[in-house]
Amino acid sequence: MCPTPFRSPIRVSEFFPYRGGELHAEEIAVSRIATAVGTPFYIYSAAAFAAQYRRFAEAFARERPLICYAVKANSNLAVLRVFAGLGAGADVVSEGELRRALAAGMPPQRILFSGVGKTPAELEAAIDAEIHQINIESVPELCRLSEIARVRGRVAPVAIRVNPDVDARTHAKISTGMKENKFGIDLGEVIAAYSLATELPGIEPVGLAVHIGSQLVDLEPYRRAFVRVAGLVRELRANGLAVTRIDLGGGLGIRYRAEDAPEPTSYARLVREIFGSAGLAMTFEPGRVLAGPAGLLVARVIYVKQGAAKRIVIVDAAMNDLIRPALYEAWHDIVPVRLPAADAFFAPADVVGPVCETTDTFAVDRDLPPVAEGDLVAFTAAGAYGAVMSSTYNSRPLVPEVLVAGTRFDVIRARPSYDDMLSLDTVPTWLSEVSPAPARKRGAA
Ligand code: LLP
């Protein structure tokens, strides 16, 4: 393929501007942070988190909903603290996330617990913390919660999560609203489950919850799901059952490539159209839309390999640091930290990490400006489902996280040392008494 001249300007967002040809996070040059913390690393903009949160909250100013940030998207304590300071609550899916939300100062009255497989210990923790709501996804879970609450002499506020059997038209691996998915209680069973909840000790059913998937760029699936849920609310009320709350989940998509991601205001209009006059207290569980655009993953080019078939750019970040491309064929824009010359030619390249499998590929045939060893590049829209999904595969230390606010930056998770990493393992005494076999001489049989 012939190199193509560079056409559209390279741009990330107002929170990650180019100044003097250098990518900045708010007021700080990304290259300065790279020098201070080493690569790869995640970088977040506090102002971008706030802007995303405010955009969402202002769209729903009339409803004044409880906005429970989906902690799974980015659970760093400092990030949770930013959202807590903006007035957000938390949607948690494990005891670990519950502890994080509490540790970050989220009031329990703004925390809700979702998830299909909460263990008895997790239900106990949720009850003991006196959180706002527990979303129940099956009748066995409802019975287990009733038992636990009864023994503790408590009453748990519960929403029944509905599986509305709607195709979210997103990636199959992050789609949750069809009847063959593991999530929620089938439409036809909701009334019975809700009635049961009114009878069980230790349970106060307060409403319904729904979440049909993540990265929705089309509002129509929401409409179909919400219409079904609104119908259920009417039916429950017609049966004399009290329904005071509705939890509409998360899922709003963001722009990774050329998607036309819906505006929160359009989403709010749709919600208003369907639930406007129902007299329900509303909750949302947005994750990606609040955190995604606020983060970058910064990496350094280790080598550029000009193969017979293609140019391969090998960077020091890998699939263990950002797994979304490997897992969901997800696209993240890759931008140079230093802008190329105005007349630079773009040419296709594969961008890969050092992990020993072909899955460790961030981009195939991506049009990139010239990049050389030592250059910094940034993967955009990596503030959600980036650091939280990282692992130490190939014994690569977890990647550090940095929060920028104006002219200051702080490491909010340090890179663990190799000693830290090795110290997690224990060699049992019987094995430590076994001395390693002497190394064989080279060439010995
Ligand atoms: N509520 C529930 C019950 C959820 O399961 C999720 C996400 C959310 C809220 C937040 O959804 P959001 O607003 O972030 O779309 N790792 C995947 C995304 C998995 C989403 C899982 N559930 C990715 O990297 O795309």
- Class derived from helix and strand content: alpha/beta
- What's the tally of helices? 13
Number of strands: 22
What percent of residues are in strands?
15-25%
The gyration radius over C-alpha positions equals 24 Å
- What's the level 1 CATH class of the largest domain? Alpha Beta
| Shape type | globular
CATH-assigned fold name of the largest domain? TIM Barrel
Helix content percent band: 25-40%
How many domain units? 2
Distance between the termini: 50 Å
**If classified by CATH, what would the architecture of the largest domain be?**
Alpha-Beta Barrel
| Sheet with most strands | 10 strands, mixed
- pLDDT average, as an integer? 95
Low-confidence stretches: none
The CATH superfamily name of the largest domain is: Alanine racemase
Bound molecules: ligand LLP
Fold and architecture overview:
- This protein is of the alpha/beta class.
- It has 2 domains: 4-44 and 293-422, Beta Barrel (Lyase, Ornithine Decarboxylase, Chain A, domain 1), CATH 2.40.37; 47-290, Alanine racemase (TIM Barrel, Alpha-Beta Barrel).
- Helix content is 27%, strand content 24%.
- It contains 13 helices and 22 strands.
- It has helices at 30-37, 46-59, 77-86, 95-103, 120-128, 139-151, 190-199, 220-238, 264-275, 288-291, 324-328, 418-422, 429-432, and strands at residues 4-5, 18-19, 22-25, 28-29, 41-45, 66-70, 89-92, 111-113, 133-136, 156-163, 185-186, 203-209, 245-247, 281-284, 295-306, 311-315, 334-336, 345-352, 361-368, 376-379, 401-405, 408-413.
- Strands 1, 5, 15, 16, 17, 18, 19, 20, 21 and 22 form a 10-stranded mixed beta sheet that branches. Strands 6-7-8-9-10-12-13-14 form an 8-stranded parallel beta barrel, surrounded by 5 helices.
- The radius of gyration is 24 Å and the shape is globular.
- The mean pLDDT is 95.
- The structure holds ligand LLP.
- Ligand LLP binds at residues 70, 72-73, 91, 114, 174, 211, 214-215, 249-252, 285-289, 324, 328, 384-385.
- Residues 70, 72-73, 91, 114, 174, 211, 214-215, 249-252, 285-289, 324, 328, 384-385 line the site of ligand LLP.
